[in-house]
Design brief:
The chain is an all-alpha fold. It contains four helices and no strands. Helix 2 (about 20-40) runs antiparallel to helix 3 (about 40-55). It is elongated.
Length: about 110
Amino acid sequence: MLTCSDPTPLAFFPIYIPNTQSSSNCKYRKVLDLAMNKTDNQEVLSKFRRIKGTIDKERILFDWETLMHQKTAILVRRSVHNTNFNIHEEINTFAQNEKPSTKHARIDK
């Protein structure tokens, strides 16, 4: 978190994927407090203080739900992509196994 340019919950959660909303709230606050105690850089410390003052439980919940929606969307896209890939493989296999008929055979003159 010390090197993160955007230490918001939404930027933090993909690194630490919480299982529940309540654990995400606790973990983010603990890591933010730890980062505030470890830094000597006044600019970074003021950024952390500003974030700590503006981020409440509702914001953390909103960011956690946003991450869950993004994660679901990614899983759906991957599933659709894999389904499309499997369908193309099946079509190609079917096309390779099918014997060419004389009706559609190319005739060179």
